[in-house]
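Hello Y.,

Per our agreement to keep a running log of every chain we model this quarter, I'm adding this entry. I've kept the format consistent with earlier entries: sequence first, then predicted structure.
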Amino acid sequence: MNLLVVNDDSIHAPGLALLARAAADFGNVWVVAPARQCSAMSQKLTIHGALSLEQISSYPAPVRAAYQVDGTPADCVKAAVQQILDEKPDFVLSGVNNGYNVGYEIAYSGTVGAAFEANLNGIPAMALSSGFHASLDAAAHFLGEMLESFLVSCQTDREIWNVNFPSVDVNAVKGILWDRPVAPSWLFNTTYEPRPLSPEHTLLDIQGEPLAPSHPVPPGTDLDAVFRGYISVSKLKCSVLR
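Predicted structure for the entry above:
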């Protein structure tokens, strides 16, 4: 089994190395990730100029090869499929992202965008995320179980599995909630505070704080699941795929 591991937090992200190490228990792993932070880029592609591709000589996981691409997460998937790998991977695994991808934030996520790019190339994909700046211990503990469930039972390239690990201690994880609907709400409500520099020029300072588990959220949803200490699994479809 050939597995492509990507992310949007950059080639240096600890969540990427964690996912690559876990994936190595299931097959041959290639890592292709952005050279720098690419969060909130959704499925953005680079369409002008050239992409810089560099092989990483020493990567902290037992992989066949690791590359950094001076582009977006979707660029990484397309470059891997079309140029880097000798054959199309059987599965694409994206993450583990630093920050939940739940609710409306899914639309902006580069992690999820890379998974959808895999679907458009005919490859089943899974996106995995954890809480922002949270410990990866829960993800590390349950990654093997989640990957086995996905790689064994998921044979479709018409949807992605969107997995979010709660920001709690390993022993506090209550279990897995499957087929969670996406919360019709924001996790992070961004606002813009104007700061005039001149009559013609204004800066908009970006402000906002993410919701905390104490905030009320739509019950039964992906956001509700992680706030209550569960691993949330949602199955998402790209609107152009039937």
